[in-house]
């Protein structure tokens, strides 16, 4: 894990490893008091939702070397599952969220069992197909989904506690980001995490020491799909209105881009990648029509000049200077 | 029966253009192992450049040839300016680079040309030809005939010429190819130029039938990827068969089942083929099982 050898701060076993986490918690706790209005809260929530999905997706792409080009499909299934069950069938939101997550997990597991026995870019193809099928079904089954016009989603409530408004939702999403970061940084110290790291280093070596790499990749894929579905459910309740666009191919590409630009197999890379690329369209919005071009240029330039992604490349750069 | 024949012609026309997209995709995959997500933009660029040149009063044959050559040059530029400098990243990184390139090409067309739909004039009129009660547009014949010529030309190129054999050798084993003196860097460059020109050809042929605009590349490119996977990644015969099969299944689904779900067909097919026959219909060698 040379990419994480920045003195102490990002080293898994270093006593200083809690410093970045403490900074993250401090930033998240202060933000609500400095953000000037609801619009900024909305941006922060969108960033937080993306960070959580991207951290889980990075376990798959960074550690298992498998690309999913259909993760927005799982996000969309979560969003529409919750929306349909709560609005058309009056299920309690929490139950709808859980049921949808289980179904998505099973679906992802089935796909992975069939596909991950093959080496190569086949999972990318399969998830690409799956994601596009999901978005076409969501667009066409208008009796359930409202079609391309979208559908509205009732408020979220747990045990009679209703969550509504940007400020309340902010704490939910901020909490989930911290949970995801803690989970992902700690997983590298568990037996599962050691297996993950072995897989990242060399798949063949991992197999030799007895790790069932296919079943491991299957579980990581299912986990990342469930995380996407849960975030989809919560985002749907937060936004109150969803369209099939949430499940589109370009959304899937965006998520993969966040992982790679931030840095493969780097939790903090996912945090920065998701934050930067969520903000980028807002920053580029006044370029009127030049957004796509600018977004593409930034992508290509990042890969050329920071080939391992922003965080690992910068960490390597600074470590070299000090050493 | 008439409807069947009519749908068959439609499927064959669309399928031919998918075959060209899949061929372009396979050539780059063979030379580098890169899944080029910018392939669809080459198709779009071909149609758009030809449409704008012909709108500017350039005679159609000149506009067509100029568009193919220009897009071929764009392919070379893409390899020189984006793919080669990003050589230090891994396979995942290169996929992201091709996605970035596709956004750049789409964005460039958006700002320099426009966001409207354009149709190219048909190559030889629009009077439908009647065949056994069904009708076929002259442009469809152009699409099929050109695809057939391109396929034969490619077969000759890869089977008989020094350059083609060098590209095939690189596909089989890059290091061995370097050892016998093949400049694999130039092979990669040439493969981008060649597949960009192929993509442009498909886009131009299709533009008089289905209109073209700055954003048609995404779906066409994805279908090219699917067609190549169906046929077997990296196989030339497979790319053509996969493309034609895709076009036919899509047309029959639209005609007999549901036109709303015709775009879903390729993606259902690719899932099925990955599960039952992962190396594709004509894939070379078995896919490695873990």
Task: Explain what you see.
The complex is a heterodimer of chains A (323) and B (290). Chain A starts with 17 loop residues before the first helix and ends with a helix. Chain A has a two-stranded antiparallel sheet. Chain A has one domain. With 323 residues, chain A is mainly alpha-helical. Helices cover 72% and strands 3% of the residues of chain A. By secondary structure, chain B is mainly alpha-helical. Chain B has a single domain (2-276), classed as ABC transporter involved in vitamin B12 uptake, BtuC. In chain B, 71% of the residues lie in helices and 2% in strands. Chain B has eleven helices and two strands; from the N terminus they run ααααββααααααα. Chain B has helices spanning 2-32, 39-55, 60-83, 91-112, 138-160, 162-172, 174-179, 184-206, 217-231, 236-257, 265-276; strands at 129-131, 134-136. Chain B has a two-stranded antiparallel sheet. In chain B, a hairpin with a 2-residue loop joins β1 and β2 (134-136). The longest helix of chain B has 31 residues, at 2-32. Chain B is globular, with a radius of gyration of 19 Å. At the A-B interface, α4, α5, α11 and α13 of A face α4, α9 and α11 of B.
Outline of chain B, from the CA principal axes?
globular
Q: Which chains have the largest interface?
A: A-B, 51 and 47 residues
CATH C-level name of chain B = Mainly Alpha
Total number of beta strands of chain B: 2
Query: What's the total count of β strands of chain A?
Result: 4
Sheet with the most strands, sense and barrel status of chain B: 2 strands, antiparallel
Helix content of chain B: over 70%
Taking all residues together, what is the mean pLDDT of chain B? Answer: 86
Q: Helix tally of chain A?
A: 14
> What structural class should be given to the helix and strand makeup of chain B?
mainly alpha
Total helical segments of chain B: 11
Into how many domains do the coordinates of chain B divide?
A: 1
Based on the coordinates given, report the CATH architecture of chain B.
Answer: Orthogonal Bundle
> Beta-strand percentage of chain A?
under 5%
Radius of gyration of chain A: 20 Å
Order of strands in the sheet with the most strands of chain B?
1-2
Q: In which order are the strands of the major sheet of chain A placed?
A: 1-4
Q: What's the CATH topology label of chain B?
A: ABC transporter involved in vitamin B12 uptake, BtuC
Question: In percent, how helical is the residue content of chain A?
Answer: over 70%
User: Whole-Å distance between the termini of chain A?
Assistant: 17 Å
Number of domains of chain A: 1
């Amino acid at each position: 894990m040379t990419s994480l050898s920045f003195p102490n701060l990002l080293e898994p076993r270093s006593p200083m490893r809690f410093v970045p986490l403490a900074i993250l918690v401090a930033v998240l706790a202060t933000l609500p008091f400095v953000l000037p209005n609801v619009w900024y809260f909305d941006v922060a929530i969108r960033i937080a939702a993306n960070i959580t999905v991207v951290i889980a997706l990075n376990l798959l792409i960074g550690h298992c070397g498998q690309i999913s080009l259909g993760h927005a499909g799982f996000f969309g299934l979560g969003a529409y599952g919750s929306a349909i069950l709560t609005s058309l069938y009056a299920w309690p939101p929490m139950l709808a969220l859980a049921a949808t997550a289980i179904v998505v997990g099973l679906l992802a597991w089935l796909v992975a069992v069939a596909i991950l026995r093959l080496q190569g870019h086949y999972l990318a193809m399969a998830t690409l197909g799956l994601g596009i099928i999901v978005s076409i079904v969501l667009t066409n089954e208008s009796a359930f989904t409202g079609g391309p016009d979208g559908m509205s989603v009732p408020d979220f409530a747990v045990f009679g506690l209703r969550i509504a408004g940007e400020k309340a939702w902010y704490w939910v999403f901020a909490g989930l980001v911290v949970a995801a970061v803690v989970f992902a940084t700690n997983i590298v110290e568990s037996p599962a995490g050691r297996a993950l790291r072995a897989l990242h280093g060399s798949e063949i070596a991992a197999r030799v020491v007895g790790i069932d790499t296919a079943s491991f990749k299957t579980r990581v894929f299912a986990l990342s799909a469930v995380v996407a579905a849960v975030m989809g459910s919560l985002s749907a309740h937060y936004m109150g209105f969803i369209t099939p666009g949430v499940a589109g191919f370009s959304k899937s590409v965006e998520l993969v881009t966040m992982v790679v630009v931030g840095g493969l197999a780097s939790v903090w890379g996912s945090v920065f990648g998701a934050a930067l690329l969520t903000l980028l369209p807002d920053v580029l919005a006044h370029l009127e029509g030049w957004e796509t071009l600018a977004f593409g240029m930034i992508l290509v330039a990042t890969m050329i000049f920071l080939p391992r992604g922003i965080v690992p490349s910068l960490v390597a750069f600074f470590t070299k200077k000090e050493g | 029966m008439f409807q069947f024949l009519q749908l068959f012609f439609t499927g064959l026309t669309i399928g031919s253009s998918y075959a060209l997209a899949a061929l372009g995709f396979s050539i780059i995959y063979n030379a580098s192992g890169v899944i080029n997500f910018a392939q669809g933009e080459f198709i779009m660029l071909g149609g758009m450049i030809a449409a704008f040149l012909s709108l500017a009063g350039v005679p159609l044959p000149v506009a067509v040839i100029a568009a193919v050559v220009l897009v071929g040059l764009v392919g070379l530029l893409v390899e020189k300016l984006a793919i080669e400098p990003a050589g230090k990243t891994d396979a995942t990184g290169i996929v992201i680079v091709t996605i970035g390139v596709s956004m750049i090409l789409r964005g460039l067309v958006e700002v320099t040309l426009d966001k409207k739909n354009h149709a190219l004039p048909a190559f030889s009129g629009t009077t439908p030809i009647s065949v056994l009660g069904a009708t076929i547009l002259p442009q469809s014949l152009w699409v099929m005939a050109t695809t057939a010529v391109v396929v034969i030309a490619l077969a000759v190129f890869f089977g008989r010429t020094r350059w083609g054999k060098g590209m095939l050798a690189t596909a089989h084993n890059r290091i061995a190819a370097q050892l016998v003196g093949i400049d694999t860097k130039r092979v990669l460059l040439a493969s981008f130029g060649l597949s960009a020109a192929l993509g442009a050809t498909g886009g131009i042929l299709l533009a008089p039938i289905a209109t073209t605009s700055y954003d048609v590349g995404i779906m066409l490119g994805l279908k090219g990827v699917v067609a190549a996977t169906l046929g077997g990644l990296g196989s030339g015969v497979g790319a053509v068969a996969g493309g034609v099969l895709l076009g036919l299944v899509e047309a029959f689904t639209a005609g007999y089942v549901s036109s709303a779900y015709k775009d879903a067909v390729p993606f259902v097919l690719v899932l099925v083929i990955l599960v039952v026959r992962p190396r594709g219909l004509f894939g070379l060698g078995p896919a490695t099982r873990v």
